Amino acid sequence: xxxxxxxxxxxxxxxxxxxxxxxxxxxxxxxxxxxxxxxxxxxxxxxxxxxxxxxxxxxxxxxxxxxxxxxxxxxxxxxxxxxxxxxxxxxxxxxxxxxxxxxxxxxxxxxxxxxxxxxxxxxxxxxxxxxxxxxxxxxxxxxxxxxxxxxxxxxxxxxxxxxxxxxxxxxxxxxxxxxxxxxxxxxxxxxxxxxxxxxxxxxxxxxxxxxxxxxxxxxxxxxxxxxxxxxxxxxxxxxxxxxxxxxxx
Length: 249
Prior knowledge:
mainly alpha; 3 helices; 0% strand; Taxilin_fam
């Protein structure tokens, strides 16, 4: 009777412990994920930071998925050892009723722990889902940031090209203006030199004309004086002739 009761209770305990083990392994992996993601993500960070965070999320999710089997096997070993310890402790009980009561108490404890684990698992699963959604959002924003950066780089290159063309055009116009200014300056200097030469020649001609005028004026004055003197002489001769003629008569 005692042996039959013990055997009939062991499968129930094994099922409960296996279910608890699965929930515990899932919650443990989810908690490890959320501990890594516990810091809030700021979407306004740089693209490198966002890419690093997204890569870390991917690594954590993949690591949790790959480590589920190992954790489950490890938990199974620990749970089997704990079950063995419980069964060994029940050997000290004398009656099947005491053993059944102990198993019921253990089963109730496991059910309570399983309920807590289910609640924690749901919360953790919700947090993991939220983290994955945030990761997807961050990836989208990162792609947008990369696209925006690519467009900005293209615009910067185009702007640099336009600035270079404008600078070359400005230098060309400045050179043309400088050449034109030098040409006009040379023409102006040549014109001034020609004007100075003409003025010098005119000054020399004017001086020569002045000297000629003074010479002609002096000659004309001499001629006039000689003419007046001749007139006086002629007048005196005429008067003398008239006097002689008058005396003869």
